[in-house]
Amino acid sequence: MSHVADILGSLDLPPYDPTPLYLRLQEQIKTAIEAGKLKPLEALPGERDIAESFNVSRVTVRKAISGLVEQGLLTQRQGSGTFVAVPPQRVEQPLSRLTSFTEDMRLRGLEASVVWLGRTVSLASPQEAMRLSLSPSDTVARLRRLRFANKVPMAIECATVPTRFLPDPESVGASLYDVLEARGCLPVRALQRLHAANLNAEDAAMLEVASGAAALAIDRLSYLENGTPVEFTQSFYRGDAYDFVAELNLRRE
Ligand code: GLP
Question: Which of 19, 25, 202, 205 has the most CB atoms around it within 10 Å of its CB?
Answer without folding.
Answer: 25
